[in-house]
Amino acid sequence: MDRGKQGEPHPAVRSVTGRAPAYSGPVPALDPAAGDVLRPAQDTPTPAPAGAPAPVRTSGPLAGPSGPPAGVGSPAPPAAALRVRGLRKAYGPREVVRDLDLTAAAGRITAVLGPNGAGKTTTVECCEGLRRPDGGTVEVLGLDRAAPGAAARLRERVGVMLQDGGLPMAPRAGAVLDHVAALHTDPVDTGGLLARLGLTDVRGTPVRRLSGGQRQRLALAVAVAGRPELVFLDEPSAGLDPQSRLAVWDLLRELRAAGTSIVLTTHLMTEAEELADHVVVIDDGRVIAEGTPAELTGGSQVVVSPPPGTAPEDVRGALEALPGVEVAVAAGLVRVSVAGPLDAGALSAVTAALVAAGLGAAGVTVHRRTLEDTFLDLTGRRLREEDR
Fold it and tell me: CA nearest 254: which of 3, 50, 41, 1?
């Protein structure tokens, strides 16, 4: 994969993040004979007339070289890209979001996790403007979502990738992306972005003939086509092969490095651990835990198998005197939880304490606690039947 010169983002990312000249041509014509028929919603923005001055972005990752210098006529960036307070939403008698508070920092990746039916999808849809909350406030890029005119002002600053992609099936993949990009005043280099996501060869293929993974990558490209300051991504790497998933992750990291704020919902714990600066866990319509991945995983475990004839309680007693550890017995094994990373010194201290007590061990293994461990501890192992 061509990543450009070392230290520089890929050319397609430069176009996404505002480091390439803005598109100034007309809206690409669609070819009905080829199936390129789009029916945008009535509130979809239209391009400026020929010769009209294009609006200039003066802040955020979409700012172009023609914008004013920093601090000259530029509004101060919001303290948070997204701020939700006391959010409530019910479907009939069923309350699915209950006084929920959530903050996503500007220029960071915030992962929203939760089992099916936890309320995370409804929460994010309220933030995207797709659902009207019953109570509370949603502030996006410093604007109250419910304020008059806020939706129109946010439309070009916010990108959305829906769970099902939300793509029209008949048009060609490239036509969809070109059309969406041309609806923005400062769009991406669509050819470069397609290449970045491995979609160049299917540019002329109707969306309905794309594989699931190709549609997923196209939906991501559409979400960032207007170089949004904030982008909501719902399961961006679901169904992707490992190579495609890594390409998506690389793109998201580079967007973050350029200042784009990302709110990511995912069921892949490894994705959240790899990408997120901050993780929010939602269950039963409320935030039940949040923090950095390191804060939520909370260290490692040394698992000791007692030797034959030795009671696990005796092993626990020998290890409880060690500083900075928590010791528990479960299923005949002694688990020693260590805060933070487990180094050689901590492991040596465990084995030395066993030897000093004359106990020894039948086996000693090391387990690094993962975000999935924490998630299951918080939400349980019961299967959930629906998402909301």
Answer: 3
